[in-house]
User: Which sequence fits this backbone?
């Protein structure tokens, strides 16, 4: 595949690993958080951690939209989906996310709810046009990458005058979450993790550009390197972070220049700002209430807001007390620190959200990283 | 959820749609978020939408830099 295969060359990866090895100061730790689940998945899939020196550690961040959706919002979605007049359209990776008491959209579908997996918002619109007698609700989730497609869909619904279409909006923003990890007042009870730099999201940044991270790098004195999702992209980004650390710099650098520009995608940003506005706060699994981190539909588009249309009540649900997803999403704990990991909680029977999505830290470790635990046990 | 793939635009369709080829597999996607798209451009697709065009010159520059960094490090090995 062009623009993918050439960024997966093993020889070059070994060369980059050598460069990191020779430039990283063995006397100090380098703790880099990859915010984005796509990066977490790539690190596990390509075994990048095995290529890094011991003092260069990757900490998995909360950038997996499925993982950070609180159980209460899943319960709200299930209640909506169970209404007989509704066809509930969702992205496939939401089907197995646990709500309260083991409920999920998949189980609701098995009990008869009309829930349809869609690949794209365009499919949801098509379903609305084909079923004028039913109410179609789209379960909108995701970071800045999936928000423009939702915005385009609402604009098209307006253009087509679809009266039977609405959106259950759960879109969230990346920069406030990154900030929250570093300064949130309510992390005292979860713990704080020391971070020396961030690997910035790839596809989120294609939309928002590199500019939004500049304040962050300046304010918190942390280097940020926007990186592509291929293994060589990530190795180069880690090398750039090591160099920034060595030179005591904290700048925003763009490794993914083939797809990310400083101002991002202006057309996509316009679509989003036309239709959405900030919520005062939004609940994230693992981070609690994060101020100005979520989006809702503007008043002008209120008729497409499922929460208003169906008078939805906000539900708050405590996570399973044994589940460590919250601390894992913050980077404070690793998947193996959770006593549910690999026992009752597996990708087949996920208890926590980090095990559901392939981008979740637990699912990535389950699929690609467990042999390393075994080797460590044998070594000790 | 955020995994997205590079694809080549093979046909432009009305209503901001296009056909792309991913390693020979064709797919219809929306290009509502992209300006000035031409056949032969590469785009990154995610949930059925092109998010951005890939800049071939920047891609080439990054690859050259990767080769350079790697060769330097391997050359410096004892």
Assistant:
């Amino acid at each position: 595949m062009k623009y993918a295969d050439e960024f997966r060359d093993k020889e070059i990866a070994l060369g980059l690993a050598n460069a990191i090895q020779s430039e990283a100061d063995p006397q100090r730790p380098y703790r880099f958080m990859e915010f984005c689940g796509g990066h977490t998945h790539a690190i596990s899939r390509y075994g990048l951690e095995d290529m890094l020196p011991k003092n260069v550690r990757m900490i998995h961040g909360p950038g997996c939209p499925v993982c950070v959706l609180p159980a209460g919002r899943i319960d709200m979605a299930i209640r909506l989906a169970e209404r007989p007049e509704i066809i509930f359209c969702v992205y496939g990776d939401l089907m197995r996310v646990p709500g309260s008491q083991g409920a999920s959209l998949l189980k609701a579908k098995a009990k008869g709810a009309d829930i349809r997996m869609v690949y794209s918002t365009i499919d949801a619109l098509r379903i609305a046009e084909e079923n004028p007698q039913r109410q179609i609700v789209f379960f909108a989730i995701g970071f800045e990458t999936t928000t423009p497609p939702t915005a385009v869909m609402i604009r098209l619904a307006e253009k087509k005058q679809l009266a039977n279409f609405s959106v259950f909006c759960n879109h969230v923003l990346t920069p406030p979450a990154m900030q929250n990890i570093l300064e949130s007042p309510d992390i005292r009870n979860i713990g704080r993790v020391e971070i020396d730099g961030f690997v910035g999201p790839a596809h989120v940044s294609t939309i928002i550009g590199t500019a939004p991270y500049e304040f962050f790098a300046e304010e918190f004195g942390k280097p940020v390197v926007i990186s592509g999702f291929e293994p060589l992209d990530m190795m180069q980004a880690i090398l750039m972070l090591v160099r920034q650390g060595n030179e005591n710099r904290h700048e925003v650098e763009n490794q993914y220049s083939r797809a990310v520009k400083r101002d991002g995608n202006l057309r996509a940003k316009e679509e989003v700002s036309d239709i959405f506005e900030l919520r005062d706060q939004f609940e994230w699994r693992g981070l609690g209430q994060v101020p100005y981190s979520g989006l809702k539909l503007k008043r002008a588009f209120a008729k497409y807001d499922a929460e208003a249309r169906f008078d939805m009540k906000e539900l708050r649900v405590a996570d399973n007390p044994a589940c460590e997803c919250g601390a894992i999403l913050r980077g404070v704990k690793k998947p193996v620190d959770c006593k549910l990991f690999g026992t009752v909680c597996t990708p087949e029977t996920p208890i926590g959200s980090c095990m559901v999505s392939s981008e979740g830290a637990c699912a990535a470790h389950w699929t690609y990283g467990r042999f390393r635990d075994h080797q460590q046990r044998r070594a000790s | 959820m955020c995994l997205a793939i590079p694809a080549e635009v093979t046909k432009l369709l009305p209503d901001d749609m296009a056909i792309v080829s991913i390693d020979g597999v064709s797919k219809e996607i929306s290009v509502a978020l992209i300006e000035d798209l031409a056949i032969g451009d590469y785009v990154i697709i995610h949930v059925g939408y092109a998010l951005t065009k890939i800049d071939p010159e920047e891609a080439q520059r990054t690859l050259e830099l990767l080769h350079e960094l790697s060769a330097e490090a391997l050359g410096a090995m004892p």
About this structure: Chain A has 15 helices and 13 strands. Chain A touches chain B through 60 residues (CB under 8 Å). Chain A has a mean pLDDT of 93. Residues 28 and 181 of chain A are 22 Å apart (CA to CA).
